[in-house]
Amino acid sequence: MIDEITADIIPAMITRGGSFIDGKWRVAVNPSYGDLTDPATGRVFVTTAQATVHDVAMAARTASRAFPMWRETPVARRAQILYSIADRLEAWRSCAEAIIMRNNGKPYLEASMDVTDAISVFRYYAELIETVGIGSSARIDLPDSQFSGEARRVPLGPIGMIVAWNFPLVTAAWKMAPALACGCTVVLKPSELSPLADCLYGEISREAGLPDGVLNIVTGGPEIGQALTERPELAKISFTGSNCVGKHIMGAIASRLLPATMELGGKSSIIVLDGSDVETAAEIVAGGIFFNCGQMCSATSRVLVARPLLPALMDCLVVHAERLRSTLGRPDAGMGPISNEIQYIKTRAAMDDIRQDQLDVATCMDLPELAKQRGGFYVPPVIVREPPVTHPIWTRELFSPFMAVHGFNTVEDAVRMANDTPFGLAGSVIGPDGNLARMVGRQLRAGHVWINTPQVIFPQSCWGGFGQSGIGRELGIWGLEACTSLQFITSSV
């Protein structure tokens, strides 16, 4: 049970040290401190030290000094260390799961999936780096025989990474694993709301044999992230978070023409075509918004259903929502609480708007008694029928377990409605004819589209969005290339 997970599981230096720099946990001079709250109870369970701007400067300089050594480390050795990080993370699994459950409020199954995903990403890049030849040259034939050409990818250098609070461990793995694989060093800033799981990487990296200075971690709030974006030693910034903060970071680094990867969220749709199996569709639709209590940048919170299916699918979705609502606060709950008080306040405000605007709510918006007794940041799953397409539940990324459902008459209408958003991170299509579903999926303005499947994301796939959902791609070979730059050499023969 979450109540049985105590602060004792957390290595002491993670809570006492605000920074992991040059292979050691450091306590800042005159550090600030931050309280971390258990989302299941609303009570503080641990207080942690935070880094200072001076620590950020030290971490960036350390990463810069370590870069030449790590860049020249043989690929086989880098791969070996990444495999070891995956192995050590597996050894730390129970601790990592417990921390995610306590710090983020996730049910055990979701916490376990996060650890498994992070492990698989490190193993994937350990294998990939040995086959793609980062640093090796590819011969390019030139039209003049007096010259030869070669192209090679080289690591960018030290990379600053700022990650979000909703998927600690996983988001950091997506960024760190390809960077370390290709020879870049790292300064990682976890979210101040959920730093503990990401701080485990400091302990794990030492055990895995990662040389001192290659991975550095600084904790703290926006001022630490701001300081990181201003460090001249860094060759790139990689950020996952809100659109607003992403734009601020882009502005901060624009004068230095610093490359960036920005994963900035979305407002995604799932289309259910006529003839779909209702039970299967309901399972996929519910998972697309209620997993992680709706706190996913890829959440398919806008549901577009062929009108002949709408009544039956709504009935099934309400059953799914009620099952989740009725178990809130229980050890076997299928959905945890909102992960932090800041997001909880925003979620409750959105619920108030739904009530005040008298939207057609299909589900019960009351909490079960156990969830009320526990306190914490519990909210019920909410399903709204055909809200105005100008309402925030249809247009804004609410990061909450709130689903809006609209019927459609033609496939063309569904595609138009799905694409009517400035975001373009993800989309999903469900249909009895796989070829038709894929044809519809290809028309979606989205970086990642699922066809007749839940939101599975493999390390080999590509992640990133169109429009306001960000810049650049992560995972797969594209994640590796994002940490490198192309060099072309022309030689006389």
From TrEMBL:
InterPro entries: Ald_DH/histidinol_DH, Ald_DH_C, Ald_DH_CS_CYS, Ald_DH_N, Aldehyde_DH_dom. Belongs to the aldehyde dehydrogenase family. GO terms for molecular function: oxidoreductase activity, acting on the aldehyde or oxo group of donors, NAD or NADP as acceptor. Residues 35-488 form the Aldehyde dehydrogenase domain. Signal peptide: none annotated. Keywords: Oxidoreductase. This is Aldehyde dehydrogenase family protein.
